[in-house]
Amino acid sequence: LLTPPIFSLQTYTVMLSSKSTVGARPAAKATPKTQRKLSVVAMAGPGQRSQSGGRWRGLDAGVDMSDDQQDIARGRDMVDSKFQGFQGQAGTHNAIMSSSDYQSQGQRSFDNMLDDFYISPSFLDKLTLHVAKNFLELPKIKVPLILGIWGGKGQGKTFQTSLAYKKLDIAPIVMSAGELESGNAGEPAKLVRQRYREASDVVKKGKMCSLFINDLDAGAGRMGGSTQYTVNNQMVNATLMNIADNPTNVQLPGNYQVEEIPRVPVVATGNDFSTLYAPLIRDGRMEKFYWNPTREDRIGVAMGIFKEDNVTRQDIEMLVDSFPGQSIDFFGALRARVYDDVVRQWIDQTSIEGMGALLVNNRNPVQFPPVSMNSQTLMQYGSMLVQEQDNIKRVQLADSYLDGAVLAGSDGSSVPEQSPSLLA
Fold first, then answer.
1. Nearest Cα to Cα of residue 42 among 56, 58, 28, 53
2. Could you give the 3-state DSSP secondary structure of residue 309?
3. Using an 8 Å Cβ cutoff, are 249 and 232 in contact?
4. Does position 197 have pLDDT exceeding 60, yes or no?
5. How many CB atoms lie within 10 A of CB 235?
6. Closest among 203, 184, 172, 193 to 106, alpha carbons compared
7. What digits encode the pLDDT tens for the residues 35-45?
8. Integer Cα distance of 230 and 265 in angstroms
9. 119: closest CA among 152, 166, 72, 79?
10. Burial class (CB in 10 A: 0-12, 13-18, 19+), 285
């Protein structure tokens, strides 16, 4: 019988080393132990980006910009079906939120607004000061959170605010008066907090933002004794008071953790703030600004309205001085009224029956040449608008119908001008 050779441990080690070196690549230079330790710390450091890059760099803290909800949806069918749950809404690989849920429903952008509109210097000054003071940290000074802009109807409060926001490069979170009432008790107050926190999230990302509430008095005010004061009106007033007192601690219902958020200036417009809850409009919470455009403001706005029509400044001044009691939107309605003759002539040419096909779903929209506007034409149509306003003030049929119960043949005539109660 042949006996196997006996090798010592040293001989066996030499044989293995010589066999491994045959046809092998030269070994890489070993990394010093201290350098390996530093690289590991740099890659795994909490809250730090990877220093060495690599295929997993996108998952490092501060670099990962992915969306968990969308990643869940992309992961479907990448593993066996037994590990990903049911199909449909109950499946674990279905996104709970869609992409539209991440977009704010109230954010408004003014990028499509032209820059050549007139902005009142006093209006811009007031809004700019309010925004700046709310973002500054002034020593031992309590700055009111809410700016209440109020004034007569049709004076351009909302439009001037939009122009000022565009000038300041602010895309505000907008609320309207219709959102301050709901069939569910407490829903409007919750919406106010939610919109405020949306604006605060924009500020947290490094961009100025504001909460803009249109016609606050129409949604939360009390218009006379006949207006019903609901629980939602009361809670909206109370919520705005609470936000004004604690602008950095605004919590949603059911979430009562103490979390400090950035402060957001609030701007509200309205016609009469005396209808609001008195503690809400006190000086510590709301700064009031009565917007009453001067003659120069009215001329400047009218110049912007008639800019495309080549109306001279002299005609604009005469128009403004001829209708001193009218609001600013009167001049916009006047410009639209001038086009009545052109539109009427187009209807006569196309016929009433064939008008619909040209107005709806037409690839070639109907266009009209600019209408020549002179002082005589503007004065003529302006007088017609004033006459319609006077008719509303003069012929008040509600007084005649409700109080006197005027019927044709019993107490005079059904024609308003011939009714005894109106002629008296």
1. 53
2. helix
3. no
4. yes
5. 19
6. 172
7. 444 444 444 44
8. 27
9. 166
10. buried
